[in-house]
Write a structure and sequence with these properties.
This is SgcQ protein. The protein is α/β, with parallel strands linked by helices and 268 residues long. The protein has nine helices and eleven strands.
């Protein structure tokens, strides 16, 4: 638990998503604006999140739809360029998430000096992306081989747009994930980005592994954040910070500020 305060400078941190626009090689990449436009929009979102008062930011290729479970090199390279150009503007702790590839996420984190990653690290799933498999042993060994000993890994144990391949209760998954893998944190999600995480599921997971950090991973809003933070040790927030609360839009700094003012009153 101590690593939360050391990394984020607060209890119950809010990690805001900086959703990078479609990149070279992605079906919806906008070639007319090119990478300069991608960087420009990422900077705009970053500044809105920071100025609004979030505790940390996580850069993710959220618009690389449809997602790959093993990304191609151009994606990681393009994300590294974006973060590299933004480094002088980043004033808060940051992490990365290369959807849906934990090895690439570690590579990007090491290249950019990120403090944490979030990914699907364990399990086998029937998903919108086909049969989705993982190799946690390989992933953690890769982290060790790169010398990323201080890099924190947030294990998403309820992947979006997928179902665990096998009849396992979320509590069994949480307990075995903690026992076998010693995660820095578990993330509990809804069905898709922006979908509310079940408070009942969140509570069951936290009760099952009380010594492990548990984050609410999707669907936090200004109306439910106090309830979710009563249970969880922090939250990852994306869609609600955007104009009109819509996934495709850019960040609305005023929405961020209203949300974070409520969080700070709750923490205070």
């Amino acid at each position: 638990m101590e690593w939360i305060k050391q990394t984020f400078g607060t209890i119950k941190p809010i990690i805001a998503m900086c959703h990078i626009r479609a990149l070279p090689g992605d079906p919806f990449y906008e070639r007319e604006g090119g990478m300069d436009r991608v960087v420009e929009l990422a900077r705009q979102d970053l500044m809105g999140l920071q100025n609004g008062g979030v505790d940390a930011v996580m850069f993710s290729n959220e618009f690389s739809l449809p997602y790959l479970t093993k990304v191609r090199p151009e994606t990681t390279a393009a994300m590294a360029r974006v973060i590299g150009e933004l480094k002088r503007d980043i004033r808060i702790p940051f992490g990365v998430n290369v959807l849906w590839d934990p090895i690439a996420s570690i590579d990007l984190a090491v290249a950019t000096d990120a403090s944490f990653i979030r990914e699907i690290i364990t399990g086998v799933y029937a998903s919108d992306f086909g049969l989705w498999n993982t190799n946690v042993g390989q992933t953690i060994r890769h982290k060790t081989e790169l010398g990323a000993h201080d890099l924190k890994i947030l294990f998403n144990i309820v992947p979006e747009a997928s179902a665990y391949l096998g009849d396992r209760d979320i509590i069994d998954i949480a307990k075995s994930t903690v026992f076998n893998n010693r995660p820095d944190a578990l993330c509990v999600s809804g069905l898709t980005a922006g979908a509310e995480t079940s408070s009942e599921v969140l509570s069951r997971v936290k009760d099952a592994v009380p010594e492990t950090v548990v984050f609410c991973n999707t669907g936090c809003t200004v109306d439910n954040i106090e309830r979710q933070l009563t249970i969880a040790d922090g939250a990852v927030v994306g869609t609600t910070f955007k104009v009109d609360g819509k996934f495709d839009n850019l960040v609305d700094e005023s929405r961020v500020r209203i949300f974070m003012d409520k969080v700070k009153r709750f923490r205070g």
